[in-house]
Design a protein that fits this description.
- The protein is α/β, with parallel strands linked by helices.
- The chain folds into 2 domains: 108 residues, Rossmann fold, CATH 3.40.50; 94 residues, 3-Layer(aba) Sandwich (Rossmann fold).
- 31% of the residues lie in helices and 21% in strands.
- A 6-stranded parallel sheet has the order 5-4-1-13-14-15, sandwiched between helices.
- Helix 4 links the parallel strand 8 and strand 9.
- Helix 4 packs across helix 5.
- The chain starts with 5 loop residues before the first strand and ends with a helix.
Length: 256
């Protein structure tokens, strides 16, 4: 396999699991960087701002700056600004709101309704409020469409399930700005200053990481950690370029 110029690393289930960095990951990232490979962390995490994710990486011996971290909320804020939207209703985790600085929070007459992962805070009243806002003419913006994610206690519903409910009830189609949207990966590719074919995406989600990467013209490596299940690599029409046990195997895969 040719050595990529840049690697886009998923976080949950790939770099860390339940807030603990996986064995061998910090050393592997240092070896990749020492070989001149550019690293960017790309994630559909919607409960934490990019700043906190960066701090968590640094605390666990993974060198990173806030600019190295691309979250779905960061991508959403960029899409909203480009679309000229100023008034938004945010159905996102409280901490993530800092990534939407500069917007007017308006629950009465929003131009866009942003939906992320609220976990147990997704009550009937909250979901119904978002439904009424969309029915009032607001654009539905989904931070991502993940159906579920891996927690310490097992699999749990993710934001995509609630996005689907709103789409069905309101008869609309959401704008998806997180993985696996092409726009998300194109933003990351521009940030590392490479062509898509020179970039390798690494993650544990065959649809969001591998499918999204291939749709944007990037290479893809699937890791057998996190939400990976045996046979995932055979469940997609555009299979990964390689399957490895963990990020720790990347230097060897790339001939480093």
């Amino acid at each position: 396999m040719l050595t990529p110029l840049a690697v886009l690393l998923d976080l949950d289930g790939t770099v860390w699991q339940d807030e603990a960095v996986l064995l061998g990951v910090p050393g592997a990232i240092r070896r990749l960087r020492a070989a001149g490979i550019r690293i960017r962390f790309v994630t559909n995490i919607t409960r934490l701002p990019a700043r906190v994710l960066c701090e968590r990486l640094v605390a666990q011996d993974v060198s990173a700056s806030v600019e190295d971290v691309q979250t779905a909320p960061v991508a959403a804020a960029g899409w909203l600004r480009h679309a000229g939207v100023r008034r938004v209703a945010l159905h996102v985790a409280e901490g993530t709101r800092e990534d939407f600085r500069g917007f007017t929070i308006d629950d009465a007459a929003p131009e866009a309704v942003v939906v992320g992962d609220l976990g147990a805070a997704w009550t009937f009243d909250r979901l119904n409020r978002a439904f009424l806002q969309v029915m009032g003419g607001a654009r539905l913006v989904a931070l991502h469409r993940n159906r579920f994610w891996q927690t310490g206690g097992g699999l749990a519903l993710d934001a995509g399930a609630f996005v689907a409910a709103l789409e069905y009830a309101a008869g609309v189609e959401a704008v998806a700005v997180g993985k696996p949207s092409r726009a998300f990966f194109e933003t990351a590719v521009r940030a590392v200053g490479c062509e898509a074919a020179e970039v390798m995406v690494v993650g544990d989600d065959v649809a969001n990481d591998v499918g999204g990467a291939k749709g944007a013209g990037c290479g893809a490596v699937l890791v057998r950690s996190g939400k990976y299940r045996p046979g995932d690599e055979r469940s997609i029409t555009t299979p990964p370029d390689a399957v490895v046990d963990s990020v720790a195997d990347l230097p060897g895969l790339f001939g480093i």
